[in-house]
Amino acid sequence: MNKPLYLSTLSLLGMLLFSTTLSAASLQAELVDSEGQPLANAVLTLRSEVAPVVAPVTAVMDQISQQFAPNVLAVRSGTAVSFPNSDNIRHHVYSFSLAKRFELRLYQGTPSEPVVFDKPGVVVLGCNIHDWMVGYVYVTDDPWFAVSDAQGKLNLEQLPAGTYTASLWHPQAPDMLPQDAGQVQLTEAGSLQRFTLSMQAPGGQTAPSAPVSAFGDAFKKARDAAQ
Amino acid sequence: MLRNSFQARIAGVLVLLLLVVVGALYVAVQTATNAAVRSQAREQLDVGSLVFQQLLEVRGRQLHDAVQVLAADFGFKDAVASGDTETIRSALINHGARINASAVMMLGLDGNLEVSSDRQISGETAKRLSAQVMQRQREGVQIFLMPIADKIYLLVQATVTAPLPIARVMMGFQVDDAFAAELRELTHLDLTLRATQDGVADIWISTLQPAQSKQLQGSMAELTNDAISLIGEESYLNQTLVLASGDGFEVRALLHKSLSQAQEAFAPLDQKILLIALAALSASLVGALMLARSVSQPVRQLAAVAERVRQGDYQASLDLQRGDELGRLATAFKAMQQGIAERERQLAHNALHDALTGLPNRTLALERLGSAITAGRPTSLLYLGVANFRAVNESLGAEGGDLALQQLSRRLQAVLRPGDSVARIIGDEFLLLLENTNSDSAVGIADKVQQLLLKPLRVATHDFALDCRIGIASYPVDGNAPEELLRRASIAMQDAAGMPSHLQVYQQGRDDAQQRQIRLIRDLRHAPDKAELLLHYQPKLDIAAGQVRQAEALLRWQHPTLGMVSPGEFIPLAERTGSIQLLTAWVIEEVLRQLREWAGRGLRVQVSLNISTDDLIDPQLPARVSKLLAEYQVPAEQLIFEITESGVMLNPEVALQVLHGLRACGISLSVDDFGTGYSSLAQLKRMPVQELKIDQSFIRDLDDASEDSVIVRSTIEMSHSLGLKVVAEGVEFERSLQLLGRWQCDTAQGYLISRPLAAQAFETWMAQYVHAPSTLVH
Description:
The complex is a heterodimer. Chain A has helices at about 5-20, 215-225, and strands at about 25-35, 45, 60, 60-65, 65-70, 70-75, 80, 90-95, 100-105, 115, 120-125, 130-140, 145, 155-160, 160-170, 180-185, 190-195. Chain A is mainly beta. Chain B is α+β, with helices and mostly antiparallel strands. Chain B is about 55% helix and about 20% strand. In chain B, the strands form 5 sheets. Chain B has an 8-stranded mixed β-barrel with strand order 18-19-21-22-23-24-25-26, surrounded by 4 helices. A 5-stranded antiparallel β-sheet of chain B has the order 2-1-5-4-3, with helices on both faces. The model of chain B is unreliable at about 775-778 (pLDDT under 50).
């Protein structure tokens, strides 16, 4: 499960090693909602004046136990994401998001062609035959980014010390838009930073399993009046 | 009348009671049926509304499921996600058609209407729709009713997810007449749906008749739940349901239950009740009439019998074989009838029979006599009286007298031949009716009766011989009328008293004498007041002196129609009937008045007048006379009261007292008619009399050799030796006067000297006599 992230981090580390040889900083971030609860699957992106040149990379969005894994995947624009199917059933992965419309018709195993996410934005993934399967691909132009773990924590290492502009995103963010998190000063000593996201009010999304009509009340009222 | 009042009353009361019962029953049944109909309707409405709810919800759920499936269709999602309005609209139309939706709309997650299969939805409706969608979304309601344009829709919404919600799709299914009809099929209720929207005409959907629906549209507001309302010709119980309401619209459902229809089910019951009521009414009417008849008929019968009893018929049969009160009444009635008959017989018997002897009485005797006369049978009447019954009564007492009469009646009955009868008329008087017997034969029978009665009666220990007198009168010889014959027989009986045989056949004319007597008795009482009486004076000669100084006042009665009535006739009548005192009083006063008058003219006469037996027993007489003497200023010496010996004998004690009283006044007393009665010298000696009057029967034919002369002479001598003067009356011959003078009789009175004279004539006579007295006396 941590393997793709691990791979990604390794590549990132390699990239950093090449660019900043002398001074390297790191960021330990803790993401919480407005009530101070740790937020999992939250994305933190950092950008600075100096933009390093980055070669295109790949990422993987697996489907395990009829769930997208990871639930939230953050990628740089232009990243080709492959959608291997680890289940022994078929999936029909699609997205009608503006950032990327695609459809992987019922398949098993790993499709031959990965999907390239070339535009920044949120791509909501679904499976046509498993309505409960929802996954997110957060496509960003920022060079540094990470997704919080179950404890709401994430680590960014091998960053050049300096000043960064931070952005936050979460699937339950209002209108699913990234939030500006201000400037972040990173030193070689490393820093521990706490970020707070404002979230959309929960509920309202969940469709009730049984249809509800408004008639019961009217009839009940009439019956009560009659008695 | 009886029928009218009694039968009608019973029938009326019964019918009235029945009417009340039936009326109450009818009202109760009506109330119960109405209540039942109503509660049934109420229940049906409740059930119906539940069914209606279910119907709506089931329909909604089906639709929702369908819409849900549709919204999940990948192609549909793809089309929606395309963002091309026309594509989306065509997809909506296409997919709506798959599930027969009447309208399909796509709304944004914010509720804004984005695409609609119907392009005509106005901004206002769209806004309202959006508001509803959002509100329903908040409420978690996915199925609801709403009017859109001119139709009512059952709206179902579903979210289109990709996989997050990207839009809402809304499908509308028209609620129309077919839906209402289906509900009606299921529930037998009528349904009216009304949708109101601002600015749009109301939408009406109804299963009612068009006319009813139209009426309902006008009066919707007046309908209230659980109240009965008249829609068209029928009455309905209604249930109102507000199925949906929001800003500017409302959908209201009305469930109607026709009570009229429900009540129709009870119409046969009403008819049956009416039938039963009519049957019971007529049956009770008949029953009441029969009952009343069973009472009134016997009552009528009883009344009829009572009427016959009133008319005197006690034989009317009363046949009521009943064990009830009326039967007992009839029995009592019969007993009463018999009782009345028995008592009436008794009364009739008593009325016609004598209680003592059991013999027919006077009435019955007269009736029988009348029958005999009517039949023309010669009949003789023997009128029998017991002369000495008074003596019997006195010695035996009234009871003994009754016994004697009973014995007498038995003896008389023994004499009777067949056809004869005996009756008790009164007291000791009996009547024997002898039919087919003439007067002569009757005498024979009367004699036989007398012979039979001679044998003494034995009452208690005493033997009595009855002294019976019998008078005989016969039809047709002595009269034609029962009363007349009876009276004449009675007269004959009275006359028989004077006959030695004590038997007398009626003498023609006796009845007239009797009639005259009755009249005299009646008129005598009024004679003094009517100035019909007058006094005549007969001079009395003092033989020795040859002078007339005395006179006897003799009463005369001038009857207005019968003329002069002799004292010999009316004095005994007056004595018998108790009028004599009246006459005496008048005589005394008249004599005094006359003496007073004469005294005024110088005529002084001593007048004697007759005092009756009744006067002698009046203790007040001396006082009254004394008062009158004083009043008329007449000396008592001028009055002589002539009394009879027998008068004194009746009640010697009182009589002697009265005589002494009179004597004390100075009035002289004279004993009249001496020698006719049982004269007693001893008695004479006790009486304060001064004079003795020898009865004229001794004087009239007086001569030397007769026995009379002995009596007269010795009487004169005896009187003188007692110190009494002697008056001889009835002197008619000169020779008698000479004898009297020789025997030294003091006074003479008679026709020889003068007949009695009226006062005026007496006065004249006296005047002449004074001048020539020698003509009378030698």
